[in-house]
Amino acid sequence: MSNPLQQQVTALDCPTRLGWLKLVLLSSSLAITACQSTSTQKIVTQKISTSTAATPRSTSHQSTASTTAYRPLAVKNAGIPGLTDFRWDLVSINSKNPQPFINRPYLFLQSAAKTISGSTGCNALTGNYQIAEPQALKIQALAGHMACEDALAQEAEIMDVLGRVTRYQLQQNMLYLYDQNGALLMTARAGQ
């Protein structure tokens, strides 16, 4: 049987242990989040083999130990400088100003995965894109299904426009999207 003083020390020690556990869990989750939110550069490793001879005093016979190490090599993104990995806030859709229903309509082209994400002002949009030649752009995207009052017409127009984009042009902080006939479909400004 333990004495009352030991029980009090153990009871006081328990919250300290709980506090340390919370601190460890919080720091672990922050470390994981930091790793996930790093640059979108791909990391490729290069295999490096090294041989080391055994020291003469360790054994009577000579042996060679081979170790393999990996050195990370940074590889540039396959994105288009100025186009990908930026938030593009929509300025016009078919010469009309877009309306922010729940949030401001925007596009984001991620170079690492060749995906597009954003918002129609009501629903999130996701999809992928392809760049076959300089300034040629093809987008395939879908929007969510949440209903916002008076937002369906704008959402349908954004999705229609994105499906018809074949070319883009960058001028300073502006992105212009065109159809196959050269008609301007959408304008966007680099987000803050």
Keywords:
8-stranded antiparallel sheet, Hsp_HslJ-like, two-stranded antiparallel ribbon, Lipocalin, globular, DUF306_Meta_HslJ, 192 residues, single chain, alpha+beta
Written account of the structure:
InterPro entries: DUF306_Meta_HslJ (IPR005184), HslJ-like_sf (IPR038670), Hsp_HslJ-like (IPR053147). With 192 residues, this protein is of the alpha+beta class. The protein has 3 domains: 1-30; 42-75, no CATH class; 87-190, Lipocalin (Beta Barrel). The protein is 24% helix and 37% strand. The chain is built from 2 helices and 10 strands. An 8-stranded antiparallel sheet has the order 7-6-5-4-3-10-9-8, covered by helices on one side. A two-stranded antiparallel ribbon has the order 1-2. The longest helix is centred in the first third of the chain and has 33 residues, at 4-36. It starts with a helix and ends with a strand. Mean pLDDT is 74; it is low at 33-56 and 70-77.
